[in-house]
Amino acid sequence: MPDEIATAPHSQTLIIAHCDGGSRGNPGPAGFGAVLEDASGRVLARLSEYLGKRTNNYAEYSALLAVLAWTLDQGYRRLRVVADSELMVRQMQGRYKVNSPDLRPLWEEAQRRVRRLDHFEMQHTLRGGNKLADQLANEAMDRGMGRSPQPTADAGPKSAVKPVPKNPVPTGPKSADRSAPAASTAASPQTAIGFVKNGVVHFVEGSLPDGVFVRISRQ
After folding, report:
1. 201 pairs with which residues across the strands?
2. C-alpha to C-alpha distance for 155 and 66, rounded to whole angstroms
3. Among 101, 104, 75, residue whose Cα is nearest residue 92
4. 3-state class of 129 per DSSP?
């Protein structure tokens, strides 16, 4: 259940939610994250959930459904959602059709929840504008895969929710230990396993120090 917030909801209060979902494999281990704030930027809740083996788009819609559920449950009626999934934003705006049989039920449920609000708007942002939500989504995936996620830097109440129906910029490679001796330029080639999302490489197994050149091969 979401943690109790400090102030009582008000029907005219605008809630701003940043949400994101991701999948390592598409489909693969998936999770979502969301941060809800008031107009002054005060964090009201952070949502994070592991979804099992799902696609990126399924995870994105799960994040949106979780945001809508929290907003309605807390009695708010005005919501602005910021997401970096252009597909989901355009579909919710009616500019793209929803052809996927997996996404259609999620879209329909999201539309039903939106109709219960007095005001709803949705806008697309680039990945850099959704850092904390993306980090929370990666933490959810780490938990589901049995890893120890790094704690988020932002303070504020944190919640884990399950949307109905169920369904920092990613942590990425760790930087090199500054106290360790510099790697030899004649070092043997090193292999790491990862995936690419929005043009950014994310490591799943292994890591590389800063400043090295890498060659990426598709599998």
Report:
1. 196
2. 20
3. 104
4. helix
Question: Taking the alpha carbons of 58, 125, 2, 48 in that order, is the dihedral positive or negative?
Answer: positive
Q: What is the pTM of this model?
A: 0.66
Q: What is the set of domains in the chain, with CATH numbers?
A: 14-144 (3.30.420.10), 172-219 (no CATH)
Q: Which residues contact 111 (CB under 8 A, 6 or more apart)?
A: 92
Inter-residue contact 174 to 208 (CB < 8 Å): no
Candidate from 12-21, 22-31, 108-117, 158-167 with smallest mean pLDDT: 158-167
Instruction: Answer whether 69's CB lies under 8 Å from 163's CB.
Output: yes
Question: How is residue 86 annotated by DSSP?
Answer: H
- Residue 36 phi/psi, 5-degree rounding, is -115, 130
Q: Is the peptide bond before 27 cis (omega within 30 degrees of 0)?
A: yes
The amino acid that residue 212 corresponds to is V
Instruction: Record the tokens describing residue 76, joined without a space.
Output: 């708010």
Q: How many helices (H) and strands (E) does the chain have?
A: 4, 7
Average pLDDT over residues 17-28: 96
Nearest-angstrom CA–CA distance, 61 and 85: 9
| Residues in contact with 105: Cβ distance below 8 Å, sequence separation at least 6, in sequence order | 165
Position with higher pLDDT, 139 vs 212: 139
Phi first, then psi, for residue 26 (nearest 5°) are 50, 70
